[in-house]
Amino acid sequence: MPVCDLDKRAPHGKKVMGLDVVVWWDKNENAWKVFDDMCPHRLAPLSQGRIDQWGRLQCVYHGWCFSGSGDCKFIPQAPPDGPLACVAVYPSTVQNGIVWFWPNTDPQYKDILTKKKPPYIPEVDDPSFTFQFLNRDIPYGYEILIENIMDPAHLPYAHYGIMSTPQPRLIVKGVCL
């Protein structure tokens, strides 16, 4: 997820590799966090919540508040010394202006990003290199996307008027129309 598409003031719901996640800025740890997009209490999407004044992710349903570690730090309807819950946290990092995360919340992977890092693309960090991030949700798998990209014959029809492509000509009995 490109950082330039994220707002630090609000949580962002994303579906990545079939996983529903919420990406949010933890101002206390000064880092982007990736959690399961589901409050452990009533399974409400955390992405529909907000960031509270203490920088915690707050559930939209009952206001449960989670720190960047995934621990529930406050339940408005419970005594302060009551039992608390936690939400599943994905190990995450930012590299080349992209939020990367390890797609497993099992505790054995908590420190995985110290051993396995995302691919580094030096050109993206080079100020003389010009690039643009594009992010688009598509309602189909990568197989269809690759097939579409590899099929230039559809361009003048499916993308009519969008791209500057020569229009096909019809030849009838030796006369070009």
Keywords for this structure?
4 helices; 177 residues; alpha+beta; four-stranded antiparallel sheet; elongated
Verbal overview:
The protein is of the alpha+beta class. It contains 4 helices and 12 strands. The strands form 4 sheets. The protein has a 4-stranded antiparallel beta sheet with strand order 1-2-3-8, with no helix packed on it. The longest helix has 8 residues, at 142-149. The model has no long low-confidence stretch (mean pLDDT 88).
Write a concise synopsis of the structure shown:
The protein has 177 residues and is an alpha+beta fold. 11% of the residues lie in helices and 24% in strands.
Q: What is the 3D form?
A: elongated
Compressed to H and E, one letter per element, the order equals EEEEEEEEEEHHHHEE
Largest sheet: 4 strands, antiparallel
Question: Helical percent range?
Answer: 10-25%
The residue-averaged pLDDT reads: 88
SSE class: alpha+beta
DSSP summary, beta strand count: 12
Measured distance between first and last alpha carbons: 48 Å
Strand order of the largest sheet: 1-2-3-8
Number of helices: 4
The percentage of residues in β strands lies in: 15-25%
Uncertain ranges: none
Radius of gyration: 23 Å
